[in-house]
Write a structure and sequence with these properties.
Order of helices and strands: EHEHHHEHEHHEH
Distance between the termini: 6 Å
Helix content: 40-55%
Oligomer: single chain
Number of helices: 8
Number of strands: 5
Strand order of the largest sheet: 2-3-1-4-5
Bound molecules: shikimate-3-phosphate
């Protein structure tokens, strides 16, 4: 298998599930945000603060365009597939899996994890729910173009393996 790209909203569990799935598939786990932080020698928050979101999106695209590795499972940033031709690049370089969860559940999971996420900082729970619902609606247009979609009840290693095995594209 070339690569697997896990896509989905912030807080859906791309890192936690990604690490488990990578181990089960014998792939090496890569965290895209961490790779960009290493490349820029700045945290994602620092990049947003000093260079703005538009520059961060350019960095995501640049990283993906230059990604020539194989046998990796990449946990992508929540916005990564929704800008430029990033999703096309991912679909080209591997298999994309969308981890789906309802906005209310994402909000609950994110409420205590806003600090390292510059887009969420300092929002009350109501504001966060409005933001997540709105942005999720826009992003699903991209997320739903993934090769495989796993809803909240299907996010198990067994189900992911089953979906991968029935997928024609390899
Ligand atoms: C973002 C998600 C973050 C990170 C950045 C922007 C987004 O990644 O890339 O803060 O636009 O949804 P996670 O999904 O890993 O939190």
């Amino acid at each position: 298998m070339k690569n697997v790209f896990l896509i989905g909203f912030m807080g859906v569990g791309k890192t936690t599930f990604g690490k488990k799935l990578a181990a089960a598939l014998g792939l090496e786990f890569v965290d895209m945000d961490e790779a960009i932080e290493l490349m820029e020698k700045k945290t994602v928050s620092e990049i947003f603060e000093s260079m703005g979101e538009a520059r961060f999106r350019e960095l995501e695209q640049h990283w993906l365009k230059n990604f020539e590795q194989h046998g990796k499972l990449v946990a992508t940033g929540g916005g990564a597939p929704c800008f430029g031709n990033a999703l096309e690049l991912m679909n080209d370089k591997g298999i994309t899996i969308y981890l789906q969860r309802p906005a209310a559940e994402l909000t609950h999971r994110l409420f205590h994890a806003q600090k390292k996420r510059p887009l969420l900082k300092d929002r009350s729970k109501d504001e966060l729910l409005a933001y997540v619902s709105d942005v999720l609606r826009q992003r699903e247009l991209f997320y739903e173009q993934a090769d495989i979609i796993l809803d909240r009840n299907q996010q198990t290693v067994e189900q992911a393996k089953k979906s991968l095995s029935t997928l024609k594209k390899k």
